[in-house]
Design goal:
The complex is a heterodimer of chains A (about 230) and B (about 120). With about 230 residues, chain A is α+β, with helices and mostly antiparallel strands. Chain A has 9 helices and 8 strands. Chain A folds into 3 domains: about 80 residues, no CATH class; about 70 residues, bsu07140 like domains (CRO Repressor, 2-Layer Sandwich); about 55 residues, CRO Repressor (2-Layer Sandwich). The longest helix of chain A has 23 residues. The termini of chain A are far apart. Chain B is built from 5 helices and no strands. Classes of the chains: A alpha+beta (about 230), B mainly alpha (about 120).
Chain lengths: ~230, ~120
């Protein structure tokens, strides 16, 4: 009995340490890989607490290995967009300009009911109100309402918004996003020309978004973070 | 960056613990083989086999189990313990299988070491 109690205490400390090492994230924000690792850790911890015939090390080592690999992989994904996409996937646009992309839904194995249910959780009961919706890498759906359904703000009161998709990132952390280029009817050369006019290179840009009118919004990298 | 340093340190520590476990199992096994040799030697030369068995038993319980218990499943150590506890009654009843029982202890210990080796077929 006492052995189980002491093992429980040791693993409690280890699990707290592991969760802290993995970083602050809520269950809903976890990527599929992180969710699987969290479940695996809880399973290994349970087995190690219960089964006293198994040395504690055989529970501690896999938990620490999984946590360390998770942290290392997230660090590598932070540095490389390609690896980030391989590990976490890409957000997929399922509604654009108010039109549902049925092929994309099929690819994601998302039914209309799933889409409707996700929208309902955001307080949207009429799908025709949605201008733009994205299935995030976590599986959650983010929706952007049509201009006439957006909440009234001083800005929209003075100048009513026209129906258009929200601005999209074209450069992220110094990398040009090719998929955004095809969606926006914009080519890399035009963006580079605009950057050159501002004495910038792609590597100097932390985030560059472009709206439906082709207007660029550029956030430069802070000093010391340039590629 | 601090997290990365902690993770890399933990990975290095895990590898170090793994290598240390292999070395300590190998070292303890060598000592166990020595005790088994002593038991078999005394048995074949009609020496004081009983005291050699006692010495093997005390080494197993006080040293071998305490060290290997951190890395090895209890069941395998339990099998060796059962074999050792059978030695004395076998000796008293002049059982033919005494030497075979000593060999099975040696084989069990060898298996413990082999199972810890990270070999390709064992990993997969």
């Amino acid at each position: 009995m006492l052995t189980v109690f002491i093992r429980g205490m040791i693993l409690y400390v280890l699990v707290i340490f592991s969760v802290r090492l993995m970083g602050k994230r809520q269950i809903g924000d976890l990527s599929p890989a992180e969710l699987v690792i969290t479940i695996l850790i809880s399973n290994i911890a349970t087995l190690s607490i219960e089964d006293v015939s198994v040395p504690l090390f055989t529970g501690i080592i896999p938990i620490l290995t999984l946590v360390c690999l998770d942290v290392l992989v997230s660090y590598i994904s932070l540095k490389s967009r390609k690896i980030r996409h391989i590990i976490s996937g890409k957000p997929k646009i399922v509604i654009s300009n108010g039109v549902i992309d049925q092929n994309q839904l099929k690819t994601l194995r998302y039914t209309v009911d799933d889409l409707m249910s996700s929208l309902r959780t955001q307080g949207i009961f009429d799908i025709t109100e949605v201008q733009y919706a994205v299935v995030e890498t976590t599986g959650a759906i983010s929706a952007y309402l049509k201009a006439d359904r957006l909440p009234l703000t001083p800005k929209t009161l003075a100048q009513p918004e026209t129906a258009s998709d929200p601005p999209q990132a074209i450069i992220s952390d110094g990398d040009f996003i090719k998929s955004a280029e095809s969606r926006l009817d914009l080519n890399e050369q035009e963006v580079l020309k605009e950057l050159k006019r501002k004495h910038l290179e792609t590597g100097d840009v932390f985030l560059c978004t472009v709206d439906s009118q082709g207007k660029l919004y550029i956030i430069e990298k802070q000093k010391g973070n340039k590629k | 960056m601090k997290r990365i340093a902690i993770c890399l340190t933990i990975i290095v520590l895990i590898i170090a613990v793994g290598v240390f476990a292999l070395f300590s199992i190998d070292r303890k096994n060598d000592r166990l083989y020595g005790h088994i040799e002593a038991v078999l030697g005394a048995y074949e030369s009609d020496g004081d086999t009983k005291s050699e068995i006692k010495s093997l038993q005390s080494f197993f319980e006080e040293d071998y189990v305490r060290t290997l218990g951190c890395f090895v499943n209890d069941e395998r150590l339990g099998d060796i313990s059962t074999c050792i506890s059978r030695l004395e009654p076998m000796l008293e009843s002049d059982c033919d299988e005494f030497s075979a029982e000593c060999e099975s202890i040696r084989e069990e210990a060898r298996q413990i070491y082999i199972r810890e080796l990270p070999e390709f077929f064992r990993i997969f």
